[in-house]
Records
---
Amino acid sequence: MTRAAEFHVPLATRRSATGIPTGRLALWWVLASEIVIFGGLLASYVMFRLHHPHWAEEASHTNVWAGGFNTFVLLTSSLFAVLGHQAAEHGDGTRAARFLKLTVLGGLVFLGVKTVEWSGEISHGFTIYRDLFWTFYYTATGLHGLHVIAGMIVLWLVARDAGRGKNLHRVELIGIYWHFVDAVWIFLFPLFYIAR
Amino acid sequence: MLSWLVPQASTSARDIDWLFALILLTVGFWFVVAQAVLFTFIFRFRRRPGVSAAYVTGERKEEKRWISRPHALVIVCDVVLITGAILTWKAVKQDLPPADERVRIIAQQWAWVFVHPGPDGKLDTDDDVRTVNDLHVKVDTTYHFELTSRDVVHSFSVPAFRLKQDAVPGRMVTGWFRPTRLGTYDVQCAEICGIGHALMPARLTVETAAEHTAWYQSRSAQGG
Amino acid sequence: MAEADAQSFWSRYLFSTDHKIIGLQYLFTGMFMGLVGAFLAYVFRMQLAFPGAHVPLYGVVTPLQYNALVTNHGAIMIFWVAMPILIAGLGNYLIPLMLGCDDMVFPRLNRLSYQIFFLSAVLILVSLFVPGGGFGGAWTAYPPLSASAQYNHTPWGAPLWLIAVALEFVAFLLGGINFITTVMNARAPGMGPLQIPIFVWMVVIASVVFMASVGPLVAGAIMLLFDQLLGTHFYDPKAGGDPLLWQHLFWFFGHPEVYVVLLPALGIVAEVITVFARKKLFAYKTILYTSFATGIISFFVWAHHQFVAGIDPRMAHLFTITTLIISIPIAEMTFAFIATLYGGSIELRTPMLWALAFIAEFLIGGVTGIFLGANATDIYLHDSYFVVAHFHYTFFPIAVIAGFAAITFWFPKMFGRHMNETLGKIHFWGTIIPFNFVFIPLFVLGAAGEHRRIYSYEHFSQLFTPGLQNLRVLATVALVVMLLFQFVFLYNFVRSWIAGEKAEPNPWRANTLEWAAPSPPPHGNFAEMPTVYRGPYEYSVPGRPLDYWPQHLPS
């Protein structure tokens, strides 16, 4: 497995005809493709919601306090990501790594609350099969949860590198991604918890 | 022109065949012109020794005209065809003429169930006649049909009527037809619906009012 | 010694991050899948011509198998042949070369995208042999049929098929991001947006259109997979779901997808006809703008696939109008291509024959689309063989004719040798003539009311007439002839690769940058990284001794 060492870095990766770093450019396109995926799912949900007034009753069984707390947790973790970016801009890898690890911690808290929420709901009979509302609820929040997990793993890897002063430009990229995950939740929370 | 290939047995068939002919003539003209120009160019501008190609950017106004003028004509044709399509669609699909009779069509894997209203002309009464894969209608009578499916998406298609409508589970779609020609025609399922998709042929018989009554009585005698 | 060689082969050809190797991997995978798709077509055409007969190399076709054959023929030809060959294969091979750089901006992501694609290809092939057989609910996979094994009787085939398609989407999303960022950032110095060859532009526009259209379907596929595997009810009307939701999500992707593969094919044709007519591309900017317009309008036409699906009849007018509007940019582009030939010095080499055949045949596909876009005629023609013939007159030129144009055109670059011209022409005529004999009869059958995806017409008295059956036999015989002629191509391909006449770096005297590299280009592509001084189509410029003017030569 010495392939990575043999890997010759092509000139193409260092060019920047637009003036925008290639990594950031690609990340925006990744997010664009993610937006249409979540967009398709949420648009389908909204279309159904308009035709199923009884979903308001189902939605009232979600835990608004847990959802609200999680919103707060995610926003705070995004703030840490911003602070991490700031530190990286100043070339302070250790500090950036510390903030990124706090962001990961935010993700962990989010997932913990989510687990408690889900197990409570499932134990009260609000399973994925109960009603189409709950099918959408588990699918959308589950897909979002997977993005949180993926984000945490990458955050951890970037933090490890940053701690050693390597690849500091990636701190910004993973930060942008984390804001996106946050933004998706900002849509999910009102759509599934608040709107009755 | 479609009537050369398949009988024209309803009012909609006549309207749709008219639109088909209109489109065929319009696009046929364009097709012939475009191919003629293409092949003329290929022949006329074949490589010959000592003759080099012209330098034409196509960015100048007088050159752009070569494509913008035919292009304007295409737009005119589009407008004509859109108008024809909208008028025909309104006539055959969007506007429901008043019904003389009603019939219910239920698709399932893999058969068609038809519910005829019986002499009282109403569905969901005791004299309804249910048949499988056998629909009987009176000529020159406007029918409304209620179409649904019990399982997957099917599509009720009668080529001789130029009639096609998907049968969607959970929905009741209303449409209409008015037969104009006596005879027996094929009903097909036009949406793939599983193993027996090819085994959903039904017959549609267009008959006179007297024949229809006789058929109804023979069915009732058998016990519905 | 032997071990070292094996290792270098391994890392050089199987796990390479070089865009050229990855491009060829896509190309060969696509060609192999093309053979699979063609074989499926052969089997079900034989069944239609000779119902119930024993098909040589296959056996007797059952209804369940028939459904799986047509379903996977469609899915394979679009997702595993047209897309990998036109976009991923040629895109990967040509984009860095045409841009004058040495690789993609994310070489390892590129390799990952091929590996995911390869996995998806393996899965779709495996899905044909699992218990219950391959999925048979058509490439459109309408639920509830596709959502439940109770209805489709393929408990393994259906989910495997769906997972394979989803993985293919992921591969092309990754590849698309790579293409777009590469073209945005890795262009040679001096190459502005209007100096980019049309083919590259087309792949970029196609990638953006793909990315924007496939997202909702990815969401839809997750829902369908949940319905299949967990037993949820997204598409089940009995539990509050809606089968039409899938149709909207599918066609919101499905129609733009046509343009996703069409645009790169048009790009190939533009590259080939300018070289062999020695002409500047007529109205480069117009062609570019019409491609943008086509990409955008393609998002507003999807419901023309659903005129008879139970949607509100008033909606149909809107979609008829948008559908016919898309003829405006496409007609303009076709006119510009034909105008490019005017005043040219046309040499009918094999690639040029394919490119011209593309225009001639695609015209048939274009004009027959009007019958289906017009809502009222679509009532009759929907899901008939008229539709089948129509989209084969678009997809066959796209995937096969443009594909052969590209392979024969860039073969000297890829392998440093020429293909045999005589064999190339035999293969061309042996493909083009039977092709029309396959699909013209299908137009007639469709107009006569024959519906698609039906394994035998014996039960339909109006369709099982000797006249119509003869047309089915004619189409099938023509297909077999066409397939046999493909062996000429395979022979020519292999023989030329091994022992063809050596090609110089720029055998066609073309302008674009890939011809400035050696044939075949080494790792790193260019001996000296090029700088761009002009647009890609400066042929026959007055006052120059040579009738071409490569992009990288200083004035």
Note: Chain C has a mean pLDDT of 94.
---
Amino acid sequence: MENSSVLIFGNNEYGLEIAKNVEHKYSNITIFGLDENEGDTNDFQFERFDLSDHWDELRQKHDMDNSIIFCALKDEAQNIFLTISLRSAFADTTIIALAKNNEDSNKLHMAGATKVIPIVETTANIITDMLKKPIVTQVLHGILYEDSDLRLIQVEVHNAECFGGEYPADINWSRDHGVLVLSIIHQDGTHEFIYSSKAKHNEITNGDIFVVVGYEQDIQEFKKFIGEEKCKR
Amino acid sequence: MQYFNRLLVNFAYFLNSSDAYQRKRRFFYNLLENDDYKYKKYFDLFMMILIFSSVSILIYEVKRDIHDYLNIFNSYIISFIFFVEYVLRLWIHSSISKVIINQDEYSDLLGRDFSLLYVVNKVFKDKMEYVLSLKAIIDLLAIIPFFHELRLLRIFILFRVFKLFRYAKSFSTFASVLATKRFEFFTLAMFAAIVIFVSSVLIYVMEANNPSSPIDTLYEAFYWSIVTISTVGYGDVVAVSPEGQFVAIIVILSGISVLAFTTSLFVSAFTEKLEDIKEAKVIQDVSKENETYIICGYESIAKEVAKKLINSKFNVLVLDEVIERVEDAKRDGLQALNYDPGQVESYKKLNINLSTQVKAILCLKEDDVENVYTALTVRSIDKNVKIMSLLMNSANRSKLIFSGVDEILHDKELVGLVAREYVGQPVAFEAIHAIRAEDSNIKIEEITITQRIVENISKVGELENVDFRVVLLGIHKRETKRFYFNPIDETLLEVGDVLFVIGNYIFIREFTKHLMVKSSKKAFDGK
């Protein structure tokens, strides 16, 4: 089931940037402010919260199992405390937490965050990539952040029989389908890159997820090919 | 006489404007005196080898006969090289042509006759300044065995060891540090000299007439005094009378104080100068590099960036006006200077060309005001150097752009973009980030098309990347500066184009090697 709402804890610049970047996908976005002196946000729903364990109201308002929570409080200790208390209350909710550094990142993982975005490391990685491989970084950013005609998407295989037992590495994706398949996530959760040595040993099966780069039209064609239409090979 | 003067002046102008002459002069100056000249270290090494060879031969021949060729090598060849070096140093020390030209212009200006006497005096004075310098005297003494075959003079070969001061920078540093305590050392020497003189005379007076005392002459008294004050005390010459022993007690106590004073002088001289020495070393190292990243400010993001650049074997220099952060950078194994990156003076002191020697200046202070200030400072010095800056508050973006920053990174915006990608395509997001992770086996690499490759592989279809299990993501064409995703087989390859490939790094390495081997094989077959 699609996630229904986004709950952002942290009425600060990070929280607002997150809200701006996910509003194209989610209409139900709420920003939660901890400080009583904080004003509300004009563009998004705003609520106050405290760190005591009273999440019933939240449960009543939102479908928590299908929501995404961002923990973006400025104070690291409060952010970790918030993450751990949300995880104890909502076992299956996706919680994405911001960490200043690797030390906090580890603690947030231990606190139960599904995904941690370490601010310092992420920024430093991007700076270093831009210095080391400027053109690659520019292209990747274009793809990743939808700033170019190219798109990076994930598609699930439903018509594995189309491939007739072929191995991923044997298919000329670019010539046959006009897209590049970068990696495959198998049903058992294992993850492999196309053309890696392991790709020779795994057949394509229904339920595999392909990570694909390509132009919109080619991707749509490819989506139909592996999932929606009968095999036309 | 006037005709001769005119001839001399014309010749001086000819030399001064001759490119060939000036080039040679500059070359020898760089080789002998310029520490930043890249070939000087090889010359210095060569000279040090000659010195050690020379001294080794001297030691060897004390108890053995040496072959004639070794003798010729030591007495003539090495000495001749040193002689040539001496003459070259004398030549480059001052310019005779410039003195003549200056005198000519000066005379013209004042409407006076050209004074040859003044020129001779000035040139003689300039050259004598070099001849009488300590280093030149050592150089001259090192050449002396060349002129004399007398065995006694061979000991002068040892002076060649002192020439090491010229070639080993650390020796010069050592001497310069001690030179800063000149006054203290002079005071110490005076104190020691007075103590030695007074104690020598005293012990002579007390002991010389005592038949059982070994001190019989003033020279022996002097020898005893030196041995005692230096706290060596060989025991071969000792005072026997109670008066003499009393003098000995005083001398021993004075000796301890002389030693303590000397030690403290050395320690304090080096402690005071240690930071300067380290700083000079950093500047010297940086000025020799051609691809340095200068990181301005050493805070959390800067630390991570520096760590990653160092791991990728890049040369990094940290500038920060806060001493604690500089110390922090040094502890992290980085070259760091306590210079304010917002001051023009800091870059002047670095003695580097920002355009040619610096790959990028990274303004990574977590303060927009400071970053704008630093960027403006750098841009005022150099229009071309690449500047990358952190942005902490989006409202200040325009100010950074205005100050000449080429790339701006806003951490909040980046977090927003990462969040956007993650909520949209979590699996794809993880996949692409796995490629970019430093410890991943799967890499995305750039392969630049060289002349060598393009002569033999003209089209994308001939690359055979699929055989190497390498994904060709696209090609960046140098001509159009555009990225072409999944190029068709007929796409032409041109020198300077960049292929973007993804795959296991071993496969990529093999593929790159294949491009070269294939190229050379074809070239070979073509012959």
Note: The domain at 5-123 of chain A is CATH 3.40.50.720 (Rossmann fold).
